[in-house]
Amino acid sequence: MKVTRRDFMKISGVTVAGATLSQLGFDLTPVQAYATELRIKGAKETTTVCCYCSVGCGQIVHTGGGKVINIEGDPDQPTSEGSLCAKGAGAYELVTNPQRLTKVMYRAPKSAKWEEKSWDWALGEIARRIKKSRDKSFTEKNAKGQVVNRCNEIAAIGSAHLNNEECWLYQKFLRSLGLVYIEHEARL
Ligand code: SF4
């Protein structure tokens, strides 16, 4: 029988835990029965890649009843071998946490109140503010008369949710506006 790395991790984890508890005199029959009823039993396994950074650690997503019921590291993924950092290990919460924001929330300057807004409103507002700041701060030439075409009053921080290609497009967009203060979350 061919045993994959994932099978090995499952078998060795159960074996080590079982051996330790057996040595302490526990009757493992009910535990073993319970283990077979684990929430991922019968769930569909889909392999994917963590969305948070370009390391690209492998994950297994368990789904059942049309819902995500578990996300864990994929031991068969050759680079990460089942390990995930704190962000990747918390990916299940990304999908299921009821406190996750799914709508645009806006707090006006000097206000203590959050307001729900539409995406159309948010995108229009962002574009309007970018244009206003860029028009105000755009510098065509430096003190030596050299052409620099830079926008000094906007800074940007990339997101760990962006993959390499999206990061490339994003920085192209920022540089086309003349931004020079460009950072990425992964460096902070
Ligand atoms: S955020 Fe963590 S788990 Fe996700 S790809 Fe990057 S290093 Fe891997």
Short description:
The chain has 188 residues and is an alpha+beta fold.
Characterization of the model:
With 188 residues, the protein is of the alpha+beta class. The protein folds into three domains: 1-37, no CATH class; 40-100, 2-Layer Sandwich (Phosphorylase Kinase, domain 1); 104-187, no CATH class. The chain has six helices and eight strands, in the order ααβββααββαββαβ. It has helices spanning 5-23, 29-36, 86-89, 91-96, 119-137, 164-177, and strands spanning 44-49, 58-64, 67-73, 104-107, 114-117, 138-141, 147-158, 179-184. The protein has a three-stranded antiparallel sheet. Strands 6-7-8 form a three-stranded mixed sheet. Strands 4-5 form a two-stranded antiparallel sheet. The structure holds iron/sulfur cluster.
* Portion of residues within helices: 25-40%
Helix/strand structural class:
alpha+beta
Across the major sheet, the strand order is 1-2-3
How far is the N terminus from the C terminus?
A: 47 Å
| Structure ligands | iron/sulfur cluster
Individual helix count: 6
* Major beta-sheet overview: 3 strands, antiparallel
Write the layout of secondary structure elements.
Layout: H1 5-23, H2 29-36, E1 44-49, E2 58-64, E3 67-73, H3 86-89, H4 91-96, E4 104-107, E5 114-117, H5 119-137, E6 138-141, E7 147-158, H6 164-177, E8 179-184
